[in-house]
């Protein structure tokens, strides 16, 4: 029981870690400008800054790369450009989240970004610090379209996080009945 309570509290902290936190690159630096351009979905400025030497793997105060940041904000055009320019799909940010997990965690991450990350080879079974996968995060956030996409692409429906919870357990723990129903229909136990 203590494990479940701790997990719920930890999950709440992650859920309320908004993707709109300010970048910690030096104010006014090219890296800072890169984060601002990504936040605004300004592909032209992102392209220009990268060509002038902004670091594609620059990180913010949550250790998120620009790719993780843009993905969590649902900025598909920026995500596509960053991937084309060689951004690391498996870079780790806060709680060791990848871009795929971050977009599942975010309430503004989009199915378009999620598809793009998977199409470009993002690890569908990547795990954050707690052993939670993108499927578990999607279940926690009630992102049923993303749940279907992940399952269609081969995500392990019965994978367990470090505390032994599956995506179905998480959906039930945070009262996401639509996620729970879908997972059961797709074979979760």
Number of distinct helices: 11
Domains (count): 1
CATH architecture: Alpha Horseshoe
Mean pLDDT: 89
Can you say what the CATH homologous superfamily is?
Ankyrin repeat-containing domain
Q: Shape from CA axes? A: elongated
* Percentage of β-strand residues: under 5%
Contiguous runs where pLDDT drops below 50 for at least 5 residues: 8-23
What does this structure look like?
Helices cover 52% and strands 0% of the residues. The protein is mostly helical and 189 residues long. It has one domain (2-185): Ankyrin repeat-containing domain (Serine Threonine Protein Phosphatase 5, Tetratricopeptide repeat), CATH 1.25.40. The protein starts with a helix and ends with a helix.
Features:
mainly alpha, Serine Threonine Protein Phosphatase 5, Tetratricopeptide repeat, 189 residues
Outline the secondary-structure elements.
Elements: H1 2-15, H2 30-40, H3 43-51, H4 66-72, H5 76-84, H6 99-105, H7 111-119, H8 134-140, H9 144-152, H10 167-173, H11 177-185
């Amino acid at each position: 029981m203590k494990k479940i309570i701790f997990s719920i509290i930890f999950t709440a902290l992650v859920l309320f870690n908004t993707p709109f936190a300010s970048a910690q690159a030096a104010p006014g630096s090219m890296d800072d400008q890169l984060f601002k351009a990504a936040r605004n979905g300004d592909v032209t400025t992102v392209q220009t800054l990268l060509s002038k030497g902004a670091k594609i793997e620059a990180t913010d105060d949550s250790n998120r790369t620009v790719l993780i940041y843009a993905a969590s904000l649902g900025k598909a055009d920026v995500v596509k450009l960053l991937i084309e320019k060689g951004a690391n799909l498996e870079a780790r940010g806060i709680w060791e989240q990848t871009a795929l997990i971050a977009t599942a965690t975010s309430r503004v991450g989009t199915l378009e970004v999620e598809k793009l990350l998977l199409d470009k080879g993002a690890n569908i079974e990547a795990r954050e610090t707690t052993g939670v996968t993108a499927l578990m995060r999607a279940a926690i956030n009630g992102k049923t379209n993303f749940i279907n996409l992940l399952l269609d692409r081969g995500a392990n429906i019965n994978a367990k996080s470090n505390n032994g919870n599956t995506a179905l357990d998480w959906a039930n723990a945070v009262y996401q009945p639509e996620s729970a129903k879908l997972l059961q229909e797709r074979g979760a136990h």
